[in-house]
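Try this one yourself first.
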């Protein structure tokens, strides 16, 4: 089960909107989350995702749940990946040196 507290940020999977948690209640063996907004919303726990504090973690969470990213999110992630200067390494080929030194 997701551990959600008052003040946590959540994402509604159906509407792709972010909300702030006001309280978590149980009704008829179902857990629902109430939001802290002018118009209070109530979501079943199965429809929400707790938003992590790290933006890159949030990116991967959205990708794993097939939620589309905004243009700002995509550009932010692209910039962070460019800063990392990622390198890919090919698997070792044991015959690589044998080709050059054949007797």
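Now uncover the answer:
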């Amino acid at each position: 089960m997701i551990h959600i507290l008052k003040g946590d940020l959540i994402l509604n999977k159906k509407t792709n909107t972010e909300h702030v948690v006001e309280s978590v209640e149980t009704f008829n063996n179902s857990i629902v989350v109430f939001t802290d907004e002018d118009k209070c919303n109530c979501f079943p726990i199965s429809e929400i995702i707790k938003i992590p504090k790290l933006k890159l973690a949030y990116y991967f969470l959205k990708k794993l749940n097939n939620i589309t990213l905004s243009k700002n999110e995509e550009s932010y992630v692209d910039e962070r990946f460019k800063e990392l200067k990622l390198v890919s390494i090919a698997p070792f080929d044991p015959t690589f040196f044998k080709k050059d030194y054949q007797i």
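Discussion: The CA atoms of residues 16 and 67 lie 7 Å apart. The helical segments are 55-64, 71-84, 96-100.
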